[in-house]
Amino acid sequence: MRILFVCLGNICRSPTAEGVFRQRLLDAGLAERVLVDSAGTGGWHVGKGPDARTQLAARRRGFDLSALRGRQVTAEDFQRFDLILAMDESNLAHLQRMHVGAAGAEVDLFLRRFDLSPAEVPDPYYGGADGFDQVLDLIEQGADALLAEVRARL
Ligand code: 4NP
């Protein structure tokens, strides 16, 4: 299975989701069976590591995001991945505009897929430090639900 997480900048939310979900897969012994990646709908941070505030909040919970580098979503991603999970409605709408034709990846809103509330992971970039912890709280819940789906599908 191949899963891509998408946000706006690929330096806060989606790299967090990539790092957290990869750790969940490692802990479950499923890392060899699922490919995980992340990308942004925008291109401002291509080649950059995750935001320092994102890395700090993640490291406090044991997730090392330092090796990740930003990239932008491409048309090929819709063929390369089975499931593309957007962090918010704006990211989802962007993906749906790119994804013309029914073939290829299933595109969905990450938290809403699992009936979690809130349905979106809020953009923490212009907010305070609390926002980064909230991102992790939401993503850890989503990652647990996604792991259950992956187990059922494999
Ligand atoms: P992300 O957060 O989409 O979670 O990576 C953002 C990062 C950068 C910007 C916006 C959101 N930006 O405008 O540069």
UniProtKB/TrEMBL annotation:
It holds the Pfam family LMWPc. Residues 1-149 form the Phosphotyrosine protein phosphatase I domain. It is an enzyme of class 3 (hydrolase). The keyword Hydrolase applies. CDD domains: LMWPTP (cd16343). The keyword Hydrolase applies. The active site is at residues 7, 13, 123. InterPro entries: LMW_PTPase, Ptyr_pPase, Ptyr_pPase_sf, Tyr_phospatase_low_mol_wt. One of its GO terms (molecular function) is protein tyrosine phosphatase activity. Its EC number is 3.1.3.48. Belongs to the low molecular weight phosphotyrosine protein phosphatase family. This is protein-tyrosine-phosphatase.
